[in-house]
Structure formats: structure tokens, C-alpha cells
Specification:
The chain contains five helices and 25 strands. It is mainly beta. It has one domain: Neuraminidase (6 Propeller), CATH 2.120.10.80. Strands 12, 13, 14, 15 and 16 form a five-stranded antiparallel sheet that branches. The chain has a four-stranded antiparallel sheet with strand order 3-2-1-25, with no helix packed on it. α1 packs across α4. The longest helix has 13 residues. This is F-box domain-containing protein. It comes from Capsicum baccatum (Peruvian pepper). It holds the Pfam family FBA_1. InterPro entries: F-box-assoc_dom_typ1 (IPR006527), F-box-assoc_interact_dom (IPR017451), F-box-like_dom_sf (IPR036047), F-box_dom (IPR001810), SCF_F-box_component (IPR050796).
Length: 399
Amino acid sequence: MSDIPQEVIDEILSRLPVKSLLRFKCVSKSFKSLIDSPKFIQAHLKQQSLKPNSDGKLLILNKNQKKLFSLDDFNSSILNTQQQPQELEHPFEQPHDEIQVLGSCNGLVFLSNNVCENGIWNLSTKVYVKLDRFCRISLPRVPPKGEGKYMFFDQICGGFGYDSSHDDYKVVRIVQCVFSYGNLLSETMIYSLKMGVWKDGEDCPYWLVKEDFGTYAAGALYWLGFKESHGELILVSLDLGSERFEQVLYPENLGKPCRLNLAALGDCLCLLAASGHVVTRMDVKNHVDVWVLKAYGVEQSWVKLFTVEQLEGRQHFSYMRSIAYSMTGGEVLLEMDNRKFLWYNHEKKSLKRAKIGGGLNSFESFVNFGTLVPLYGRGNEKDSKKGAEEGDGSVTDEL
């Protein structure tokens, strides 16, 4: 090994899955020091993001049972045969637990349960951090003077993502109230994993779609929302570096779809625009245009990837999300109506059912790839790393 240049060793190791790297930390002190170093962790993360399916899992949240499942290999060749998802044990389990996945980014998952525990979990290293309960709600529960006679609705939105400019992972919580005169009151709180604290953020000037958790892509969170109570649906972003809200313009040739959905595809925001036309009184054909935003804030960077047509013999669909590219990049895994997975082939313009067992008939899915990203909180870097080495998955930082 001494004859091999160090940079070659670093490059080889950075391409290995997390499971192997955790074992290699026991080989020597130099290996352990290298694998634990921030520079190597970033290099490994970069390699994994280029080929996320190679060490990736498909996380499936059963919406009926509120249980979390994992499919360790979800390539199109594998999913031609029946695959059985495995139930995941997670650090936020409680009796009669109902778990929610509120975001996934760089191998980290933001989870919440029905007893108001929230936290971030690295599935590969088994290390997790519990956040303190969501902060105060300072918005009024009754209309202030001049705002109307009653509250029209109130809601909590949020999101989770990575701020590369500060090398920090952030949780966003937005509380909004709309009163009978149509005025909006909004409060934003942002949690920094690096600092281990909540702080006040810029109030969101847009009405976000009710209880919609933001879609993370390339350093920003995205929601659908409105400028005013009876306005058109717009695309809203929060840059996690500047922590500023902005409206993002739609593609010029979007048209007037009847439904819009957001998802992430690779490292890009994906906009799925569903439209339909009447064939007969009893038959409506619909299709979905799939767009990706290649550069944040640049309207001209919208690219239409493909259009999914409703094929003969297939049932109508009303909702579709992009999940991931195949290993070759020639196919895209789609989630349809929270009930089934389909592979879409670009060249053949064909849909193929992905065979997944387990009796899942109402679910949400998320891609999670293996990383060494540590979970720091209030300076407890040492404790978090110790938990990863021992592999017991029981180390927490009570924030």
C-alpha cells in the first residue's frame, strides 16, 4: 500500500459504499482519520451524488399504516421481478406511532412522529439528532382588529435541505394564517444543524399550498403558492443560503395545465404539468409534461424532458411524481397516484410497471443514497462520530 500514491487511495475509497468505509475505519488509524475527515466526506458525497442509485435506497412511507419501508435496489432491471420492501426500524418509533418523512437530502432524512418528536437521521451511519419541539407560534389565534371576523385557515408548511454556502443543513418551518378579509400573516423559523438553534427567518409573502412540505433541489426549497387569495398558482422558492423567498417563473411554453406537482430529479427541480382533453362524454385522456430547472433562478434554463401520454388500456391518472433516473439514465422512475411505480423509457416513450410487493396501496416515496454526512449539533461533533463508529444507532443529541 505504501507504493500507492495517497491521492489514488483517496480516490478509490471515495467511490466505495458507506458500509465498506465503516468497516475500513477499523483497518488502521490512518484510514479512520482519512474517512472521518471533512474533505473526504465531501469527496465521497460528490461521488455518491453522481451515481446515487449505486448505493441508494427507495424509502416508501405507507400512508395507511404510517410505517417506513426500504427497497435497497430499485433499478429497472431488478424491478422487473417482484421485490419485497423491508420495514425500517427508525429512532423515532413510539407505541401506536405514526411517522412522517418531511424531507430527504444527501443521505439524511428529516422525520417526525405523532408525539411531536422531530429529528434528522443518517440511515447509513445510523446516527441521528433529535430537534427540540417546534418553536412557539406567535401568530394570533383570533383575528387582530381590522383583519375580519374569523380565521379562514391556518397551516404549517416546511422543508429540509442543504445550504452549500455555509456547509449547513437547515429545517424550515412556516406558519400561516389567513383571515376573513383576505390578509395573510406568516411566520418563518429556520433551524441550523451546524449551530443547533432555531432563529427567525424572513416572513413568506406568498400563500403556500396548504400543508405542503417543500421540495429540495440544488440549494433551495420550492412550494406552489399564490400571490393573493384568488390569484393564479405560482412557484415559490426559498434560497437556503440567503434565506430569501422569491417567485420562480414557469417555463414559457407551459400552457395552462389542470394540475401541477413538484418533485426532484437528480439535483434539479422537476415540474410535472398534467393536462387533459375530452375524447367522449365518458372518456378523458390526460398527459403529463415533465420539465426540469437546470439553473436556479434562470427562467431560460427550463427544459422539457418528455411527455407521458395516457396509453391505451391504462387507467386514468391524476397525480404523478418523478423519483429517480435509472442507472443508465435512459429511464425515469415515476410514482403514480401514490399507488404504483412506473418506469418511463425516453426513447421508446413507453411505461412499464415496477413490481413491488408488500401490499402497499397508498404511499409516498423518497430516494436516499448512502453518505458519511455527520450530524453536528451545538458542538457535539465528537459524540455523533462516536455513535457512527460503534454502530449501535443509539447516539442522540438532545437539542
